[in-house]
Amino acid sequence: MYVEKLIGRSLEEAELFLNKKTVRIYNCEYAVIMKSYFFGFIKKRLHLSVKKGIIYDCFIRIDL
């Protein structure tokens, strides 16, 4: 899966790899909206944890 391929890359490389823009959530956490369901009410997001510009952890989350 693409989650393992993102660890160790920068945010810019992740945006190019996924062909999506990242959105800043917290100080060192970003999200990529992968898919929207039910007219945008439910979203599948890929959360990226970043330290010094490098991704060290990522997980997929589905929320409202």
Structure description:
The chain has helices spanning 2-6, 11-18, and strands at 23-26, 29-37, 42-51, 54-63. With 64 residues, the protein is an alpha+beta fold. It has one domain (2-63). It has a four-stranded antiparallel β-sheet with strand order 1-2-3-4. The longest helix is centred in the N-terminal third of the chain and has 8 residues, at 11-18. It is globular, with a radius of gyration of 11 Å. The termini are far apart. The model has no long low-confidence stretch (mean pLDDT 85).
Largest sheet: 4 strands, antiparallel
Helix-strand pattern: HHEEEE
Basic shape = globular
The total strand number stands at: 4
How are the strands of the largest sheet arranged?
1-2-3-4
Fraction of residues in helix: 10-25%
Amount of beta strand: over 45%
- Could you tell me how far the N terminus lies from the C terminus, measured between alpha carbons in angstroms? 24 Å
Mean pLDDT: 85
How does the helix and strand content classify structurally? alpha+beta
How many helices? 2
From the alpha carbons, calculate the radius of gyration and give it in angstroms.
11 Å
Low-confidence stretches: none
Q: Structurally, how many domains make up the residues? A: 1
Features:
64 residues; alpha+beta; 4 strands; globular
Quick overview:
The chain has 64 residues and is α+β, with helices and mostly antiparallel strands.
